[in-house]
Design goal:
The chain has ten helices and no strands. The chain is mainly α. The longest helix has 40 residues. The N and C termini lie far apart (48 Å).
Amino acid sequence: MLNLVHLWGIFLGTVIGLLPIINPLAAAPTFLAITEGLTDAQRREQARKGCCYMVAILVSFLIGGSFIMAFFGISIPGLRIAGGILMAGIGMSMLSAHRDTEEEKIEREAARQKRDISFSPLAMPMLSGPGSIAVTLGFTSLATDWTDYFAIIAGIGVVALLTYLVLRVSGKIVIFIGPVGMNAMTKIMGFLIMCIGVQFVVNGILGIATDPELLRGIKAALTP
């Protein structure tokens, strides 16, 4: 029973952690822009392939996360702090007013000229960018058993399915919500992402402060 509660918590944590960062509602207008000129069937195909690529990218980082951390000598608290700072920065940028830069306009124009935008720029970096990859790597610190990895992968799959459904009806959503609604949703998502990022930093600092080796070193230094 306790194991099921643990797995359910990891599954929900994955969905709640990734969904605000991937933010399919905010990606909908850009998706419409870069698929301009395509038929509805072609748009659905691009959205489906993009979401499949997104799952493949995030699962690859999830499975290879421990090897990456070991290779570069990255500790779990360090990963949490770095990921938290990155997420908090993304959240703050979403809360502040955003104006398209000339570089972003050029990138979107180049994307319009591509026949297949499912991998780049849709899957990478729109859906599975640095923020979602950092969060996925952070989930490796919560996995203690192989069943935990299945729960995280299931959460990634649910987020991908929700993203696909949103992109599939992106035209109707953009018209229904409108610019003001899209702006409000982006700010709400930004606030949630910033809160999650700050909590990641707090957990990382607590992990360092409660490290047994550090505590033994402090005790040895204070012992006369």
